Amino acid sequence: MHGFMQHPGVACGCGGCPDATADQGRRRFLCSALGGAALAAAVSSAEPASAQSTMAPDDALKAMMDGNRRFIEGRLQSLNEDLSILKAKTAEKQEPFAAVLSCADSRVPVEFVFDQSIGQLFVVRVAGNIATPEIIASLEYGVAVLGARLLMVLGHSNCGAVKATIDGKAVPGQIGALYAPIWPAVNAAGNDLDAAIDANARMKATLISRSSTVIGGATREGKLKVVAARYDIASGAVSLLG
């Protein structure tokens, strides 16, 4: 379906159904990076993260949107923080309050966009903000081990990956591998680039929530909020997608 069988181990991307290959990919990632026992130990023994230990998911979202408002108004606070102190505090461990799946586009500087500094955001970036098993595994780490209270899938205006998928032209190297996970959004939105960008962000947020027992469980327990959003490159504004 959608040609996904040509890419074993790539998550379905439809946003409507869990994919067994996603579970397999996540297991491979976690086993190779930490080992099953090590991951369990990390989760159980991790110290409460001061950056988010008292922060509710809704408060985490508010902090992000307040930061975006400061970014738009040109009154960033994060740049005024003492970097030497921040580096010292984060040298041994990280305590992000939010995780963000963003496009790799160089015009989307996530920390600036939300006026957050070192150690506050766990950012995973890939062209088209797609959700492969490896991407989902990384986000699971941000939630299960680091304690992120918010997970945001952030699309952006004029996304080249979505536009290329709509055009469907031949591309060099392995760039075409990005098409398959974005096709469902294009199929749903047609050739409307803006609608496809929004649909892609929504579908990836749904896919991550449904295919990950870690993220889905944290959401059901009220420990995590998963949202889709869109960043407008021209204005700098982030809009939440319902």
Outline of this structure?
The chain has 242 residues and is α/β, with parallel strands linked by helices.
Could you describe the 3D structure shown?
The protein has 242 residues and is an alpha/beta fold. It has a single domain (16-241), classed as Beta-carbonic Anhydrase, Chain A (3-Layer(aba) Sandwich). 46% of the residues lie in helices and 12% in strands. It has helices at residues 20-33, 36-45, 57-73, 83-90, 110-113, 133-144, 160-167, 179-189, 193-211, 213-220; strands at 98-102, 121-125, 150-156, 225-231, 238-241. The chain has a 5-stranded mixed β-sheet, sandwiched between helices. The chain starts with 19 loop residues before the first helix and ends with a strand.
Features:
Beta-carbonic Anhydrase, Chain A, alpha/beta, 242 residues, disordered N terminus, 10 helices, five-stranded mixed β-sheet, single chain, 12% strand
